[in-house]
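Appendix B. One record, verbatim.
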Amino acid sequence: MYEKNDLISIVIPVYNVEQYLSKCIDSILNQTYKNLEIILVNDGSPDRCPEICEEYRLKDNRIKVINKENGGLSDARNVGIDNSSGNYVTFIDSDDYIDDDYIDILYKTLILYNADLSIASHKVIYPKKIIDKATGEKFCTNSKEVLERILYDEGIDLSAWGKLYKKSLFNNIKFPKGRLFEDSATTYRLIDASKKIAVNSKSVYNYVIRNNSISNEMFSEKKMDLIISTKEMTDFIKKRYPELEKGCERRLMYAYLSTLTQLAKAKEKNKSIQVKLMNYIKHNRRRVLKDKRIPKRDRIGIISTMFGFEFYKHMWNIYAIFSGRS
């Protein structure tokens, strides 16, 4: 079942990550699977990233460097896809790194089940703690089951990385330029377009939490993009799979809670957004709480909002400390 040796394209958007980039690229060069096309998309990075990319290009002929004006993560991924030659493509963020068997696991799993998309798991690398998201499961399924598990955060997530795609899936699907949380706007569509999806829940991707990453910078109204993308996703899923409506309500509530958490972590205040977020949660929380399937973390978060924003903020700080997230 594992006789193929397809060319696999790895797309790595690069921007302002000079202290992390070498570790990322080295982890790719150390892959046990060797037939790779490594596409470094320099998205107008203002630091030494362009020089580092060029140094690596001269070391390994599998590396291709694309230099472009800054257009954001989505634009860089789209450019990388458009310039890729492999039948399969995967994504790695340039401040993360992968285990030596990352490609092997994803490719073997995809070939074994003759799937359109394969999914592995990951570890979240916090400064004081590592959380392993693996469940140990191995199976092949359909789009509906994968989307349902995403809606309830059951072992599969919306990240673009940690997955291997048939390149043909991107013929009519692109990442949305200029939007944050672009994975939430794209991955569900790629899943829905896949007839067969294979899962090997081994943690082979290392997602590094750093203080100056996009997801951890100061709060701005762009953080509301998560809610916009999640609303698009849940509307799409409810139309396609009406029986997943409760899961869609849970996922949208999660987007509001996650955005509220970002606001709670920020030093500056934004009263109008705070009111908007709290109003949605207030008017929808009782219905969502009736769903026995929602994660315990969500249930605690929703209940804490009943005592106001400051109490929610206090509870989040306690949770962050005891969970090793701060």
